[in-house]
């Protein structure tokens, strides 16, 4: 494992944060207990489940910091080892991430583990597989009891490699949460998970401000991104230029994708989201993209090209109106279009909207996004508790 870097700071106590969390945790326990009384449950446990989350893919940060609202110590994003903890429902969650989190080099502090993995391409799959084998060994030696996986899936939904590891197929993984419209999602042991913001580019957790809600924005729309040859993105740029609409929108197109932003390009991108009423989301390799969630963070309404991309994503046994099933099921208040030719009419309407109407729309979007994350958190906790806790049916 080339990833392993020895921890230099031996005297650093990773459990320091616990005292600080105790107050918030007791408040959460109190609220959780009230809920349990409300549902007529007689047994009031504080936390009866301990779950350790191993964040070995950037979407782990979306799960922990954005959906769970959790903190990490140290705050430095390039630290070798970062961790956090919180109580939620009946569960005590701890989260570990960073290059120093390597199989066999850290203590396994819980009987239940959530592995956050990247399965987007062969090299990542090879690395993810090593983690699965490590977890399997821990299961076989009775060190842990249950394993769930949160997977950044392949953009064409080609995730066949994970199937043999699932319990339903004779493996040991109880639950799989996977991004994109994976056809095997069944809401029993395989669940769709949101892609979220690009945490691998250090996209931050954004706290909505008064000015984000109330200030007039300089641009009707924005699109900053790569324009692939013969893609609908080319059509989009043509349509904007034809009607001179590109003058009213913040458009910065490039021909080649760049995995890492420069500080300047990243600041530009955040400014564009903050300064535009709409964020245009043309399909890339998959319809779902980080841009959707990033636009929501800044109260800029996503305009989404609602078409299926080539590959194996699509209808599952529980969902039939793919793509973006998860977002649609949750009533996302976005503008969905089938063709960019619909855009001029949308922008015309936009020009006529009063600031007051736009403020209301931003409020609705930010409120929806906050609820969406809270709902995903609750759903995640419920699924783990239902699956990992011994059932009361005796």
UniProtKB/TrEMBL annotation:
It comes from the Eukaryota. Residues 51-194 form the RXYLT1 N-terminal domain. Residues 200-389 form the RXYLT1 C-terminal domain. Keywords: Transferase. GO terms for cellular component: Golgi apparatus. GO terms for molecular function: ribitol beta-1,4-xylosyltransferase activity. It holds the Pfam family RXYLT1_C. GO terms for biological process: protein O-linked glycosylation via mannose. Coiled coil: none annotated. The keyword Disulfide bond does not apply. This is RXLT1 xylosyltransferase. It comes from Motacilla alba. The gene is Rxylt1.
